[in-house]
Amino acid sequence: MTLKIAKLAWAVAAGLCLSLPAAASELVMFERAGCGWCARFNAEIAPIYSRTDEGRALPLRRVDLGQPLPADLAGIDPGAFTPTFVVVDQGREIGRIRGYPGDAFFFGLLGRIMNATSGAPTRS
Fold it and tell me: Domains of the chain: which residue ranges?
């Protein structure tokens, strides 16, 4: 009987862990329906992003501004422009890119944020 209870407790604990927001670093893309620059990002960067070093270090998480913000992003201001890309680490903003600067500049700006050593957020 004790083994069954232990297995049940483990299963419940595992399920709770899966429902918690991730604390790892991520790139949050705040977007909205009808955004032309979001569509351009989706055509130029989104298909390859997860296969890049940046994409492996900062998985892309999309947040639709037409929906309520997820609770774990309540302290992050999505800004007025879409898309806005925010690098988040353990719930804290590290830096952001306002708008989509095109494929020639996106990875350079993201790399600058990733390499920033100061404690202050980097904004582009």
Answer: 23-123
Report d(CA 41, CA 43) in Å as an integer: 5
Residues 85-122 have pLDDT tens digits of: 999 998 899 999 999 999 999 999 999 999 984 444 44
As a whole number, mean pLDDT of residues 22-36 equals: 88
What residues are paired with 92 via a beta bridge? 89
CATH topology of domain 23-123: Glutaredoxin (3.40.30)
Instruction: DSSP for 79-119, please give it.
Output: -SSSSEEEEEETTEEEEEEES---HHHHHHHHHHHHH--SS
Phi/psi at 46 (5° precision): -50, -40
